[in-house]
From TrEMBL:
Protein name per UniProt: DUF1573 domain-containing protein
Coiled coil: none
Signal sequence bounds: 1-20
Keyword Signal: yes
PANTHER family: LIPOPROTEIN-RELATED, SIGNAL PEPTIDE PROTEIN
Keywords per UniProt: Signal
């Protein structure tokens, strides 16, 4: 019985310590951008604004599009707590029709990975 109480106390203590550890935290203005109708072979760019609402610097390790048609530009320097930044996703529409592309953002933020989306319809 004492062992059970000891391990239960240890689990509770570990959980409370984990809750007080400093973290970086994305807060996004939006995570999806709808371009609507866009012209074929004419690149378009969406900007995704964010704020680091955590209490430690936010570092984006990598951000990449789901295909070669989506280029991504992201901050290479750490974003301090309370500071903001933006990620730009540029879609080059080579094929006519609807599209729904994603951008995977890998960072030290709580959760580790964020996914942003761009969508629309390419017309001639």
């Amino acid at each position: 019985m004492k062992r059970i109480l000891f391990f239960a106390s240890l689990v509770c203590l570990s959980a409370s310590v984990a809750m007080t550890l400093p973290t970086a935290l994305f807060t996004w203005g939006k995570t999806t951008h709808d371009f609507g109708k866009i012209t074929q072979n004419k690149p378009v760019t969406a900007e995704f604004q964010f704020v680091n609402k955590g209490d430690m610097p936010l570092v984006i390790n990598n951000a990449r599009g789901s295909c070669g048609c989506t280029g991504v530009d992201y901050p290479k320097e750490a974003i301090l707590p309370g500071a903001s930044g933006k990620i730009r996703a540029t879609f080059n529409a080579a094929t006519v029709g609807s599209f729904n592309k994603s951008v995977l953002v890998e960072s030290n933020a709580e959760g580790g990975t964020a996914v942003l989306y761009v969508k629309g319809e390419v017309v001639k």
